[in-house]
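Most newcomers find our protein records easier to grasp once they have seen one. Nothing more is needed to start thinking about how sequence determines fold. Here is such a record, shown just as it appears in the course material:
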Amino acid sequence: MHVTDAETLAKMDRLVSSETNPKAPTLRPVDAATLIIIDRKPKVPKVLMGKRHEGLKFMPGKFVFPGGRIEAGDRSMAVTGALHPRAEQALMAKVTRPSTQRCRALALAAIRETFEETGLLLGTKDYGGPDKVPAGTAWSGFQERGVFPDLEALHFIGRAITPPKRVRRFDTRFFAVDRTAIADEVEGIVGPESELVELTWVTIAQAKALDLPPITTVILGELEARTAAGFGHQLPVPFFHQQRGRFVRELL
């Protein structure tokens, strides 16, 4: 497995320090989740990336993976399949008050945010749609399209905490899923006035050449190594966070 080198971590430190506001309050990181959809059918795998609207205050114009924070409905949404035990174990490592419900909510947040930002529904149509969904949430789209979110398809591949003194702080869990897990698509979600103005399938090498947040570049390198090593659930999960003002890479 590839190990993010010291030079890359130092580069992250430099980029972060240039964006840090010493006067900003130290915020508690918010639980968030991101989903990387990977197409492993081509000889060179491709990932799905979206370009954020230039008018957004947070990361305008950057290419990102869809994602966002947990919402209340994510804690009660019905699913099929369970997270892999190894993924659940890694999700519960190095957190206060770990619980299987929190792991499940993080995975569902990644699936819901992907639907909201891209129109893609990840899951299965084998059982029809869920009978009930949390009221007033995007999960109604899964019910309408007859799609059950499927946690079994998800791989937990990384975690990163935004450093202190930033406008926003997230404790982000990065999930990956194979393209074959796309069960349906709602058209018209991505466009000139949307949060994501375009979607593109690119190789990891092509993705690294795009305008990316620093952590996205690092996670792409980890994904590349993980794919080369077989994309198995048992592979270690890197955890990026700062200690004494410097980024470190631990394994969960």
